[in-house]
Design brief:
This protein has 284 residues and is of the alpha/beta class. The protein has a single domain, classed as 3-Layer(aba) Sandwich (Rossmann fold), CATH 3.40.50. Helix content is 38%, strand content 14%. The chain has an 8-stranded mixed sheet, sandwiched between helices. Helix 1 runs parallel beside helix 2. The longest helix has 19 residues.
Amino acid sequence: MADGPLTGKVALITGAGSNPGMGRIMALAMVRAGARVAMSDVNAEALARSVNDAREIGGDDSAMAIVADVSSPEDAERAVAEAIDGLGGLHILVNNAGINTTFNDERANRAPNFWEIDPALWARMISVNLGGAFLMSRAAVPHLLEQKWGRLISVTTSLDTMIRGHNAPYGPSKAGHEAFAAVMASELEGTGVTANVLVPGGAADTNFIPFLPEIGRTTFINPEVMAAPAVWLSSEASSATNGTRIRGVDWDESLPIEERLAKASGPTGWPQLGRPTGQRSSPA
């Protein structure tokens, strides 16, 4: 704690109340690493319990609760301001909050076809999963740029999840978040603020996926795989890493960092699938 790699750093993590949940896991890991953490969620009761768990690890001043909806511009601005005021600064933003209300359709044991989706539901999911990352980053980045140091970590998903049928609007919303993370990395290059992506590497065993008898969970990934890479991405050690996506399931702490990154990472947004840079003559 006092001598951890994140000593002196303040993090703000969205979607940090759910248990089991990746936001909570990353928050507890950062507290163990010496950070103080503002934990944000829309569920006040779950958030209070998770903040209490963090305080049991790091003490009463190691964590604070911020009840906020990331899809609200006012809430996003307030969450950043409260984190700075309450914990004395801000160095790390983890855009983890997400919803997937179409995961299961009782009529067919699947999410609906895209033409069956309620437009209001589509708009809500895009506003949280993609819009929330934009609003939170927009609110935090001016402060990070002013201090010339910061870390933005985006929790997206795997490419197959983004484009799989019967997974809209969740998949497209996360594809948008991934693209936005790549845009942020490009625009922040050389500023001291980095933007990277962290994913578990497959379906994680959290309550984001409903606990239903027909859903087998034996192959699900332990969400604890997010802890160690989240701490590393938040630390001074990751200063040269920008525009990278890391798969938690492949993160091997026993390897030297160069080998670890070679095994577990690739570029954000799959730029290798696009046209060569010299051929990009128009926005299209």
